[in-house]
Write a structure and sequence with these properties.
The protein is α/β, with parallel strands linked by helices. The chain has 15 helices and 25 strands. It folds into two domains: 3-247 and 452-476, Aldehyde Dehydrogenase, Chain A, domain 1 (3-Layer(aba) Sandwich); 251-433, Aldehyde Dehydrogenase, Chain A, domain 2, CATH 3.40.309.10.
């Protein structure tokens, strides 16, 4: 089996490899992918630093052409790349293809942004002096991405970094290297100069640490766990570099007595359990007012019983496997924690057997939970949700905001008054009304508050805040 190598200074390199295992069928090896060491990471950083001055001054048409070419190829190969994504991460094939299309849209958007780079020309308060305000690239950008969106998250970090003239050292999650390798290969063949984009696959403790330790990395954008995010922050402060963190969530979905029951149940099902609950925007706290509580739990349980859990590549599967054995163990541990805390396991929570060996878990729903239980405070990152019964809207809002996180928040209601008040008062970066808390557009800002995020927003035109630095120039007329 061919080893998919790292890309350093325009050359494919690396002999040591690890197996990429299919979570839907652990007997299947998706591919062999190189494992970089600390020296590889340092060489990649040096290459990116050397390439930075020329790429920063490259023409906008050159950048546009490369990003647009990448977008076109990703879209043309959506079936192939979507299958690869589902094979290595465990999302359903429909979700895998959908995420691939989104990656293509992101590259297309930022291809357009290269042609919309703008500044300002202002008069000075002093006579005969002009002021120009422009944006310039920050330099070498380190990109560290998680396993749960193996093509979309790399796309929404790499595309703006290149669009605004930065060079990149990219470390994907070791668990899902396939889609990341494919994106880098596509961009490499699209015509990127050597050293502009470098791929170093490997352990975070080795490759990621080398990136954190380097004074030549000018900015780091990270998506992953809270614990690792804190390490990224501490190391970045040490080197006085820009850093951007997207971390955990414990997102609430509020259901009021006046909600359309069908809308509420469908949104909760999607929010909590689709993508196997492995989304930072997933709702694991379902906060339900007492008048609709019993009907909501009964209807949601009925829907959950009809959901098909199975091989991600089976077109009839609605929820695929958990990504790997360690995540499955974490999910099962939290289900046991919930039982011991006194919550009622109303549905699911059992490991499932299918035709192929994999990490299959029946979605779990707890009732009789409260907001102080660990299952209501800590991010589980699996198909596990808790129903918290509350008296009315005011209590629902208070419980929703009573969390260390603040990424996404949702409400199901037919009341314009409550919907408007919730949008203004939910302590989250993103608010959904009668919609799942997961599922956002590529051209608008993404990010949260509190312990969920740090730094400027990702995606859309707001990405310029992180990937550029502002210069103010004065000229005597």
């Amino acid at each position: 089996m061919t080893i998919h190598q790292n890309l350093i200074d325009g050359e494919w390199t690396g002999a040591e490899a690890i197996e990429n295992i299919n979570p839907s069928n652990t007997d299947e090896v998706v591919g062999l992918y190189a494992r970089a060491n600390a020296d590889d990471a340092r060489n990649a950083i040096a290459a990116a630093k050397a390439a930075a001055p020329a790429w920063a001054r490259s023409g906008i048409l050159e950048r546009h052409a490369i990003l647009r070419k990448a977008s076109d190829e990703i879209l043309a190969r959506k079936e192939e790349l979507g299958r690869l994504l589902s094979s290595e991460e465990g999302k359903t094939l429909g979700e895998g293809i959908g995420e691939t299309v989104r990656a293509a849209q992101i590259f297309d958007f930022f291809a357009g942004e290269t042609l919309r780079l703008a500044g300002q020309v202002l008069p000075s308060v002093r006579p005969n002096i002009g002021v120009e305000i422009t944006r310039e690239p920050v330099g070498v950008v380190g990109i560290i991405t998680p396993w749960n969106f193996p093509i979309a998250i790399p796309a929404w970090k790499i595309a703006p970094a290149l669009c605004y003239g930065n060079t990149v050292v990219f470390k994907p999650a070791e668990l899902v290297p396939g889609c990341s390798w494919a994106i880098v290969d596509i961009l490499h063949r699209a015509g990127l100069p050597k050293g502009v984009l470098n791929l170093v696959m490997g352990k975070g403790s080795v490759v990621g640490q080398a990136m954190l330790d380097s004074p030549d990395v000018n900015a780091i954008t990270f998506t992953g766990s809270v614990a690792t995010g804190k390490r990224v922050a501490a190391a970045s402060v040490e080197h006085n570099r820009k850093y951007q963190l997207e971390m955990g969530g414990k997102n609430p979905f509020v259901v009021l007595d006046d909600a359309d029951l069908a809308v509420a149940v469908d949104a909760a099902l999607n929010s909590a359990f689709f993508s196997t609950g492995q989304r930072c925007t997933a709702s694991s706290r379902l906060i339900v007012t007492q008048g609709i509580h019993d009907r909501f739990v009964a209807a949601l349980s009925e829907k959950m019983a009809a959901v098909k859990v199975g091989n991600a590549l089976d077109s009839t599967t609605q929820i695929g496997p958990v990504v790997d054995d360690s995540q499955l163990k974490q999910d099962l541990d939290y289900i046991e924690i919930g039982r011991k805390e006194g919550a009622n396991l109303a549905f699911g929570g059992e490991r499932l057997n299918r035709e192929t060996p994999g990490f299959y878990l029946q979605p779990a729903l707890f009732t009789e939970a409260n907001n102080q239980m660990r299952i209501s405070r800590e991010e589980i990152f699996g198909p596990v949700a808790s129903v918290i019964q509350v008296k009315d809207y005011d209590e629902a809002l208070a419980v929703a905001n009573d969390t260390a996180f603040g990424l996404s928040s949702g409400i199901a209601t037919t009341s314009l008054k409550h919907a408007t008040h919730f949008k203004r008062n939910a302590e989250a970066g993103m608010v959904m009304v009668n919609l799942p808390t997961a599922g956002v557009d590529f051209h608008v800002p993404f990010g949260g508050r509190k312990g969920s995020s740090y730094g400027s927003r990702e995606q859309g035109s707001y990405a310029a805040e992180f990937y550029t630095t502002v210069k103010t120039a004065y000229t005597l007329a």
